[in-house]
Amino acid sequence: MPSFAVAALLPLSLLSATALAAPHRSSPPQVVRLVGQAPATNDVTLDQLRERHADSFARLANAVKRGIQAPSAVEKRGSVVHVPLKLHYNEYNGLDAHAAEVSIGGQNLPVLFDTGSPDLVVPVDCKFGCANGFFNTTASPTFVKDGGDVSVAYGTGVATGYVADDTVRVAALAVEKQVFAAATQLSTAGGENWAAIFGLAPGGGAYTGGPSFIQRLVQQGSLARNEFSMSLKSSRPELVLGGVDRGFLQASLITVPNLGAASGIWLAGMGATSVDNKVVDGTVSYALIDSGSSFNSIPRSAAAAVYAATNGTLWKTQRMAVAGIEADVDIYTVPCEPSSTSGRIGFTFIGASSSTPVSMSAVSNVLEYVDDVASESCFGGLYGANVELVPGSGMQGALLGMPFLKSVLAVFNFDDAANGVSMAFSGVRMPK
Ligand SMILES: *[C@@H]1O[C@H](CO)[C@@H](O)[C@H](O)[C@H]1NC(C)=O
Ligand SMILES: *[C@@H]1O[C@H](CO)[C@@H](O)[C@H](O)[C@H]1NC(C)=O
Asked: Which of 367, 344, 378, 379 is nearest to 273 (CA)?
């Protein structure tokens, strides 16, 4: 299958799990979850979901500013911890996923760090074929089953199980009694190189009751700075908890307010789209920053303008889910060996500290070969789709996933109580 099969990885905005058949512990009031490519267990239509969750959607539209308060009494003396990531590519060089080993109850498991979802979801006592491992509950003396049932829905499937806790360790940082979803069923049973999903959305713990690992670190003052940063650049991919690796910075950081703080997601207001610093489209959109998505999506007119300027060709318009919303999606092909010095695709963000576009290289936008021809053509990682991510907002939705994060250093900060949780991006000037 061509790239849209790849594309379905984990588009993830958050939609209250009440739409799913299985029981759950609590329905998260602030969280918006959009379910797409409806899993087999979900016989509710997308329209019904949107209707049911109109309130949550409206809340997101209002983008109420409410950050996660840093504990002011705690003096910052915590750590900066580097977590090397392993990238997994598809047949060309499109980034499919990234993973890192994390210890849960003393057992190491590869996890996908997902800025698009709120909870740690761990397959346990696997009876459904977990190629990349699972957590053995009886082998951990510190494991506690908290009891409540839980269901976590992703754009590509659903995890069901129960709420549990155990000691979770990421590199040198350990949190005891960290709550997580122990998944006994997982319709997307891991990826190519990961077994568990490690949610890093600001509204952590939306399904399990939380707080999430990152929230616990913030609350405990465990971090040197209340932020984490991610770079998926192939030379040295890593997640940094508590700061930024200055070695990655090739341009100054551009700070972007998080419009999704109240809804527990990382959401930027996106303004103009440019190619090589020249504006090609001015459609305004809400962009979900999702490290669990293997593709980007922007409004159709913006994508068309980008590909007109970068030698792309419309391959097909395909019905598929973007951030959980079904839409007609324009998929383009691009040269597999694009120019390394031109064709940089840039975005400017609303309320940002600079109007300089944050750019991704043309190379980062190449996904994988179009496999039905021995061609020189590859799929572009940027799709065109008109989706209303925030219903009622009258604004288009966008999704910035791995192809974008391959080109930038992204910082996710929990400190800025006045402006809501903020993000910062530094674009690359050159690929690699
Ligand atoms: C889990 O661990 C227990 C105790 O170490 C062991 O007896 C059991 O076989 C393990 N279960 C699986 C499914 O690996
Ligand atoms: C588009 O094609 C032209 C002509 O072959 C080439 O000069 C240019 O660098 C290409 N642009 C990109 C972004 O690849």
From this structure: 344
- 8 Å CB contact between 151 and 207: yes
Integer Cα distance of 369 and 379 in angstroms: 6
Rounded CA gap, 228 and 82, in Å? 10
Over residues 128-172, the pLDDT tens digits come to 678 899 999 999 999 999 879 998 877 667 788 999 999 999 999
Structure tokens at 114: 């997902």
Quote the strand ranges of 155-310, DSSP E.
157-170, 173-186, 196-199, 227-231, 238-241, 254-257, 267-275, 278-281, 285-289, 296-298
Residue nearest to atom 7 of ligand 2 (CA): 339
119 in catalytic set: no
What span, in angstroms and rounded, lies between the C-alpha atoms of 115 and 399? 12
The two structure tokens encoding residue 379: 């799929």
- Residue by residue, DSSP assigns 205-240 as TTTT----HHHHHHHHT-BSSSEEEEE--TTS-EEE
CA distances from 353 to 18, 356, 357, 424 (A): 38, 9, 11, 9
Question: Domains along the chain?
Answer: 245-427 (2.40.70.10)
Q: Which among 119, 281, 290, 416 is annotated as catalytic? A: 290
Q: How far is the CA of 254 from the centre of ligand 1 (A)?
A: 49
19-60 per-position pLDDT tens digit: 222 222 222 222 233 322 222 223 333 344 445 444 444 443
DSSP structure string for 101-150: EEEETTEEEEEEEETT--SEEEEBS-SS--TT--B-GGG-TT-EEEEEEE
